[in-house]
Amino acid sequence: MNLTADILSQARREGRKALLETEAKKICMEYSIPVTKFELAKNETEAVKDADEIGYPVVLKIVSPDIIHKSDVGGVVVDLKDEKGVQNAYNQILKNVKKHNAEARIIGMLVQEMAPPSTEVIVGAIKDPQFGPSVMFGLGGIFVEVLKDVTFRVAPITRDEACEMISEVKAYPLLKGYRNTPPVDIGAIAEILLNTSKLVMDHQEIKELDLNPIMVYEKGAKTVDARIILE
Ligand code: ADP
Ligand code: MG
After folding, report:
1. What is the pLDDT of residue 143?
2. Does residue 5 have its Cβ closer than 6 Å to ligand 1?
3. Phi, psi of 18 (to 5 degrees)
4. Ligand 1 centroid – CA 208 distance (Å)
């Protein structure tokens, strides 16, 4: 009855520490964290059918328990506009992945809705050895990777704490809008932080969680990639 618990116990049974993106996103959905629409395709024909259903443009991504950083192995192709594009990307990704790791087990290809480019934020969680589950917030790209402009709170967090986290990063003014760029939906980010906090409190076997990136819009937000690592 509890989808998240089922997914976690299946991974444990199979001895997998890193969940597949499909599994991580299903868990997000159970916790009302918005994610891009997706379907798992087992072959090229299915991928085209899924893309037609989801609607173009779409993104194709490798699904393999042996690949954690998908774009590092050429496992992600974005902005596919038609059937031919999907077919080409499907074969190209398989080729790229095999070149990097000939042994990688391939579950299939994730066909997903392409989220329009926008301001990118990151929500994360780690299980701190001392403080237990803790949540993290930052803006995507150079803000986290180069400037380390991130903030943490021990879970569970309140709505006020979620809002505090968002407003205390140095890049906060970018979220409030500047020049021609309109403000983004800060309430939607706070909601994702709260739901992430709830998720890691409910399931303490989660060692790391990474929603990276989340596209934030004037109204709403969408998680484009989700990673969950178990203890
Ligand atoms: P990984 O982090 O495993 O390399 P991602 O799923 O994050 O793979 O994909 C790499 C990049 O491709 C993302 O950071 C994002 O910029 C872009 N991307 C991936 N999926 C989508 C999507 N559904 N819509 C728009 N952009 C996407
Ligand atoms: Mg990613």
Report:
1. 84
2. no
3. -100, 125
4. 18
Decide: 21 and 210 in contact? Cβ < 8 Å: no
Nearest 5°: CA angle at 148, between 224 and 221? 25
Q: How far is the CA of 133 from the centre of ligand 1 (A)?
A: 26
Contacts 24+ apart (CB under 8 A), 180-183: 181/119, 182/218, 183/218
3-state helix, strand, coil in the chain (%, to 5): 40, 30, 35
Longest dimension (CA), the chain: 52
Which pLDDT does position 147 carry in this prediction?
Answer: 84
Whether the Cβ atoms of residue 135 and residue 152 lie closer than 8 Å to each other: yes
- Least Cα distance to 175 among 166, 184, 167 occurs for 184
**Cα end-to-end distance, the chain, whole Å:** 23
| Spans of the chain below 70 pLDDT | 1
- Residue 70 CA, closest ligand 1 atom number: 3
Torsion over CA: 90, 91, 97, 101 (sign): positive
CA–CA separation, 114 vs 59, rounded Å?
A: 6
Distance, CA of 215 to CA of 120 (rounded, Å): 5
Residue 15 CB neighbours (<10 A): 7
Model pLDDT for residues 75-131, shown as the tens digit of each residue:
999 999 999 999 999 999 999 999 999 999 999 999 999 999 999 999 999 999 999
From the CA of 140, which ligand is nearest? 1
Identify each DSSP E strand in 70-118 by its residue range: 76-80, 108-113
Q: How many residues does the chain have?
A: 231
17 with 209: CB under 8 angstroms? no
